[in-house]
Amino acid sequence: MKTVSALLHSQPGRYEPTEVDLDGPRRGELLVRMVAAGLCHTDDHVAVGDSPAFRLPIAGGHEGAGVVVEVGPDTPGWAEGDHVVLCFTAVCGECRMCSTGQQNLCDLGGRLFTGARLDDPTSFRMSHRGRPVVQAHGVSALSRHTVVDVRSAVKIDPDVPLERAVLVSCGVATGWGSVTRMSDARAGDVVVVMGVGGVGTNSVQAACAIGARAVIAVDPVEFKRETAVRFGATHTAATMAEGTAIARSLTQGQGADATIVTVGVVDGNHIAEAVDSIRKGGTVVLTGTGGMRQGGIPINTTMFTVFQKRLQGALFGGCNPRWDIPNLLAQYAAGTLELDALVTRTYTLDQVAQGYDDMKAGTNIRGLVLFE
Ligand SMILES: NC(=O)c1ccc[n+]([C@@H]2O[C@H](COP(=O)([O-])OP(=O)(O)OC[C@H]3O[C@@H](n4cnc5c(N)ncnc54)[C@H](O)[C@@H]3O)[C@@H](O)[C@H]2O)c1
Ligand SMILES: [Zn+2]
Ligand SMILES: [Zn+2]
Q: Do 233 and 164 fall within a single domain?
């Protein structure tokens, strides 16, 4: 069939709505009519060239939700009409990582970068003028229709609006889990969140939910800081120097128990600032990403060792998609997780590039593409 997808034809470049050919679903695949897709910063890393493209064009988007309109043959457990949240880390359910509660690190992850079928790196579901199109993270959420492997989809309760469920596909789960799963923060702690955009705002929510006594939101953009306060931040700061001073003032000079780095484009200096902000034995969770080619992290490694600090990388906030996506939506339904106020502005598929411009101008917490 023909559909329209936000394609990146060059790197650096901008996402352009482009007509593409889409194969019908094969065994183990689903044809999904997209309802909503979120403008996560990660897709912009690809557009600007921070993340290398192995092949172009790329059909972007990895934060998405929609409705199954066709199920491939011999694909048990799925039906037309099922509501799905797409999953940018495919889950096989069988590898060591999946079997030990780390589905976000599933061995299939290494194959997602090809943008081809998971079991055949030479076989693409999408094409443009006869050339293969890479499906970003295996899903291409910024498409009117997409075909995905069932291992990249999580079925959800149809009562949750898809325009809200989409948010847990990446940003919410990533920010939430960065605190609840990847840091050691607990009730009574002091938590710094560095960068309160689409991801970090959810780290603020999570820090409040676990009972942190202080949640310090650091962001150079005033609108982001104001929003963080509405999500429960107790203190705000425009720079890490100020944020760290607040953390120390609350801890007799020791520093934050945990600092979550959710800056849009991370470099080594950001990480060094975060490491400086934590107490002895504290944790920095590194969730934001930057360029693949980068210098080192300017920290004093002896002090890092003797203060026994921890620097923890985090993919999808360490969440297990098959458990955490439905669970976060259950929390939303129960009124204990805020999703509505995360959406600043909505766009059509034609406006994706504008949505990314707005994200970088600092005017959006999360921009959402809604498919009519
Ligand atoms: N690890 C993962 O699984 C994962 C998942 C999703 C997103 N990400 C990454 O997380 C990062 C955040 O994504 P997002 O969608 O929230 O982006 P965003 O652009 O919505 O938010 C980033 C925020 O960082 C702020 N910022 C910029 N410089 C700062 C600084 N020096 N100090 C403090 N704040 C600063 C910006 O003002 C903005 O509010 C990106 O790097 C993205 O690629 C990682
Ligand atoms: Zn994302
Ligand atoms: Zn696996």
A: no
